[in-house]
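A quick aside before the break. I want you to see a complete sequence-to-structure record at least once, exactly as it would be stored in a machine-readable document. Don't worry about memorizing anything.
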Amino acid sequence: MVDLLNLQCKQCGKWSTAGAGYLPSFSQELYCQDCWKLRNEEVLSYPIDQLANQPAPHWLQLLKVPHRPLVRNKGPFPWTDLDIRKIDESLRCSIEQLYADVQNELPSHPGQRCLSEFFTSLAASTEFQMLWAGERRGPFVLPTHFVKNLLTLDDILHGLSAPSVRKPCESALTLTDGADFRCPISLPPIRHMAELLDVLQYGTIFLNTASLHWTVAAELCLAANRAFQFPSNINVYVTGPGRSVSTDVHTDNHDVLVLQSQGAKHWRIFAPPLRMPHSHPLFRGKNDDRLLDSELHEPLLDVVLHPGEVLFVPMGFPHATGTEGTGGTEVSVHFTLGLSTADYDLCLGGLKQSFLQEMGLTKKEEMSGKSWWQLLLPIPVGFLVPEWIRESEAPSQRYIQEIVKQLLEVSAAELLESGKSLGEISECAEQVASKRLMQQVAVLNSQEEAYEEVINSGDRIFFAAGPEQTCSEYRRSMLRHQIAEDERKRCVADASDPRFVRRIDPMDGVARTFSELQRVHALSMAEMDVYWQKCESLYPHDQPPAELLQELQRASETCKDLLYFLHKRTPQLKKTRVQSFASRRPAKTESAHCFGENREKFGSRRIPLEWIAVD
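That is the input. The structure line, written in tokens, reads:
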């Protein structure tokens, strides 16, 4: 909250004890009336007549919106039908209104039109816009019946066993004990259901960019792209029952819609923690970062997703998942549909960064938490564009004017000290905004071409074509990048190379490389040389056993070698043999399972088997 009894003008430094006449900027900084007037005249003014009589821009399609489907009255929200174990009271009204806005009564096996109606009604909902890109950003859950069995375990095996040069798609097995040990292993081809179920006893299978291979994932992405006007991608997660931690608590750098297809999964979503000096809010809990329990408050939403239910998790909101305590015995299969805004720089912050670079200005880092998150909001396109702009006589001109005004507003602190003329500022801002919008259109068009290629492939389940056989440039470039990364990981340099050697950090027991320790603790090279000697080595002379390296290499080649490795090196992660058949919907439990309780420790040190040092 702004203290209206003790205010200081951001520009001239003048103080006021009355609070009258002080106006907030986009970043919640305050200006006295004189400086506010000067700011608007010198920085924020942008004459629209400069845009008059311009030819229709290439990005004009971003203003168009699909026809909003008619949503019939479905009655009150079915709270008793969902397994919601805890919900912040502030979310209840939003979810009820969203349920009334969204078309979710669809056939059990929908076509592309049905998918489009769901995503279009969601994108058009004012309530969704507030939860996604407004002042009330937060999670929600909805019943969406068409999601049930949209992708099955048989469909996944069909893809993982498809003929290919080495592996049919980018996939990995994520291993974690929910505490200090976590590692992804590249997944080899899997030919039989028995092998797939055996692998799932040890961790969660992750199918990267599944929308470039599985037809139904491509259909979902194509419908989402057209409804939201932002790039999208789908990853698929497959987890056996009874696993307390499927993925460690973490944040993502994009907003996601989770669509539960089979089985059940327990989700807890938390409000963003306070920003830490050496941790990026959108990458918490990843790589060498750890999100501590002390940083998290009570969950905003604690829910078990069952087939036919959809969950929304905004970027930067920590979430923890597992299958223990759900009451089910079936394998959990869900889509994670990511809407790319900030990760593609299709947000105010990305626009500002490009603008300041073009102007030769340096970004000011001092910023309140609220203003920092404000810069991550998406550039308004599609349904996010105010209706009065879309229906005006010159929509493209009005639209670019509003974007430029927002851009100049969030860049006001840098521009006021730049000494640049209004003409230079206005011209550069328009060029940067137009270029970014054209880039957004180009990405959407390239993704649409790729997803249509997958949808129209001969195999109606899985498209196995490699980069040389694909027609779309987007799919070709993505597959080539994945192959290059896979080869890089397989041809790791000497394991004693300083880039890969890890030692145990005495501060928290986490294994880190020299460079990771230096970044986390902000130490100089001289200080790091001393600190490095205090860290316990994982292996004698920092050299992993040759036998271990050979086993890791073979584990990514065949499923037989992978299972041998898992049985030998990670027996503590093994769960009961999972089932492939569907089970009845379990009865609700009275209390939520607490993630991370009674975490098992292995051996005398906190890191049980640190062969992740050579991944």
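Two observations worth writing down. The first helix runs from residue 33 to 44. The longest strand covers residues 232-239. We'll return to this after the break.
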